[in-house]
Tyr recombinase domain-containing protein
Amino acid sequence: MRLEQTQAEDQFKCWLTDDDLDELRRAAGSIRDDLVIQLGGFVGLRAFEIPQVCPKHVKRTPDGDHFRLRVPEGKDTTSSGGKPRDAYLPREVEGDIHRYVRSEDVGRHEPIVDLSESGIRAVVKRTADRAADATGDEDFRYVSSHDLRRRFAQRLLVDKQVNPRVVMQVGGWDSFQAIEPYLNAPTPDVVNAAFEEAGFA
């Protein structure tokens, strides 16, 4: 994890790795809390979007091989109201949602994660504190729900080199300017690969 100082005192942007996400998932206090981590880190949902999604919003694509998660109301970035979008839903996350919905008897029109936005933020904070206790890495204490979404974007744009227009569509970004910060922050693995490719291994 890399920390980047913000203008606010004692607040940092956390550039997580997938190993960091795994630590957070291990530290989750419940299946619900693990779903919160996954919906932020692997689906790219914002804290206020997670409580919006219900089982009816999980859709299988016409080819039958992929899933989408309809986000009813995304962030209002153009002053014209929040727009719905179809986030890409990885098969593993879809499976965990399906099992949770069945075990908790969540109705089709009920929130999968029945918490407020502040409740989502509290889950992430609690889980991050547990991860700090478990690993001894105090940097986890700075992790916020937005850092999960930051990892989602960086994985796609930097690690996997996914077309930025695709990332914008599934993540609800309206401009290249909005995703540019994620493009300018290579992960340690990307840095290592670049130097190896240049013959500096």
Q: What stands out?
A: Helices lie at 18-27, 31-41, 91-104, 117-135, 145-159, 164-171, 176-183, 188-197.
